[in-house]
Design brief:
Length: 158
């Protein structure tokens, strides 16, 4: 029968292997393009549920947005704009996104571009929807990607 020192050594080695396995599993990081696409999909799903707070989760505090009508929005104004849209559209807004092109710029910056069709028309949106080209900027914040900028223009305009 092994003595107490031998058993303690085996337990210590086993504990060391477990801790090493946990540490190595924490080293796995989702590729930036995949993480950004997932974040955009999560924002879209929240928007479809009219969950504006859910849409705003990845929006950085220093967000800057600009629409094709020279509308400039910070984070707070973006949320107010989304609330206004939801109220004006009576909860019938829906965004359909086209293919998302992600361009990773180093370890902590990226852009994502995609076409978007917003439907639910009456009041602020045309009855048949509005097609937009969207350009977004992203910054890695710890393990998350934060939306730091967005520009949207009616499809076909420069």
């Amino acid at each position: 029968m092994p003595n107490a020192n031998a058993r303690a050594g085996v337990r210590t080695r086993c504990l060391g292997f477990v801790l090493l396995a946990i540490a190595l599993s924490g080293c796995h990081r989702t590729p930036a393009d995949e993480a950004i696409r997932k974040t955009i999909a999560t924002m879209q799903a929240a928007g479809d549920k009219q969950d504006i707070d859910g849409v705003m989760v990845p929006v950085a505090d220093d967000f800057a947005g600009r629409g094709d009508d020279e509308l400039n929005l910070d984070r707070k104004q973006l949320k107010q704009f989304l609330v206004l849209l939801r109220m004006q559209q009576g909860g019938r807004m829906h965004a359909t996104l086209g293919p998302i092109t992600v361009n990773v710029l180093g370890d902590d910056r990226a852009t994502a571009d995609f076409p978007m069709l917003v439907t639910g028309g009456s009041n602020l949106l045309p009855k048949n929807g509005q097609a937009e080209d969207v350009h977004t900027g992203w910054r890695r914040d710890g393990g998350d990607w934060k939306l730091i900028s967005a520009e949207w223009k009616e499809k076909g305009t420069k």
